[in-house]
Design goal:
Elements lengths: L5 H8 L3 H10 L5 E8 L7 E8 L2 E11 L7 E10 L3 H9 L10 H5 L15 E8 L2 E8 L1 H7 L3 H16 L2
Antiparallel strand pairs: 1-2, 1-5, 2-3, 3-4, 5-6
Length: 173
């Protein structure tokens, strides 16, 4: 198995029930969490980044995965890093992002490919992933190549998804 495809393992691995249960178990100390990932097919990216919320405190978090070679998409948590945020401007910016609106976005509207007469070969494009956990409820939203599909078959929900993930992603840098 080559490392060039590992970037795609995170989006697909997060769909596995055992991976979701492991994340829920290892992050249960938080009231809620939000993670984003823009996985590239060609980049070895073994992590998702986001924020954990506990009371009035906000933590920047990174979950790093390792691959269990018993099956292709079988990933397990390698480590979880967290650091408490103390920069007021960053905390305020995070609070302004309405990431909870993504939780109700239709998966069909994020991945709708049939509303166009234009065929475009878009293999090996980034898979955008949004993960939210609140009260042990795991919400996973994913969109393959949203920046391309938004141009040829736009939806309001995909635009909201892209805008919110981009805002969160920028704050995580």
């Amino acid at each position: 198995m080559t490392s060039t495809v590992f970037g795609q393992l995170i989006p697909y691995g997060l769909q596995l029930d055992k991976v979701q249960k492991e994340i829920l178990s290892r992050t249960s100390a938080f009231d809620s969490l939000v993670f984003v990932n823009k996985a590239s097919y060609w980049t070895v990216d073994r992590q998702i980044k986001g924020y954990g919320f506990r009371g009035k405190e906000i933590y920047k978090m990174t979950i790093t995965f390792k691959q269990n070679t018993t099956s292709f998409y079988n990933i397990t948590i390698d480590q979880i890093k967290k650091s408490k945020l103390s920069i007021a401007s960053k905390i305020d910016a995070i609070k302004l992002i309405n990431y909870s609106s993504i939780e109700t976005v239709s998966s069909d509207s994020l991945n709708l490919k049939s509303q166009t007469n234009t065929y475009i070969d878009i293999s090996d494009q980034p898979e955008w992933t949004f993960l939210s956990i609140k009260k042990s409820i795991f919400v996973l939203k994913q969109s393959y190549a949203p920046e391309i599909y938004q141009k040829i078959a736009p939806t309001k929900e995909r635009k909201l998804f892209m805008t919110t993930l981009t805002q969160l992603d920028e704050l995580l840098k």
